[in-house]
Amino acid sequence: MEVKDLAAGQGKIDLVVEIVSVEEPRTFEKFGRSGKVANAKAKDASGEITMSLWNEQVDTVKAGMKVHIINGYVSEFKGEKQLSTGKFGKLEIVQ
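The chain above was modelled as a monomer; its predicted structure follows.
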């Protein structure tokens, strides 16, 4: 699977991407719990996509790393596709 093949609303994403950049995290409160989220730019040979990093992922993922998204999900925000691990996916750092 490659970035160019991703479509909004698509699940079960299994993909290895390189993190190009990570923006400053933002904090939020939802259902009485607080957390943080940061947008990152991720790429592979076929293209780039915005990726949402949640909570502990914000502290773990840095620019230049390769990450493996397992069971990820693609949503759409302001007309732009966004990749994330969603509720059921996970992110692994590739050495």
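The chain has one helix and seven strands.
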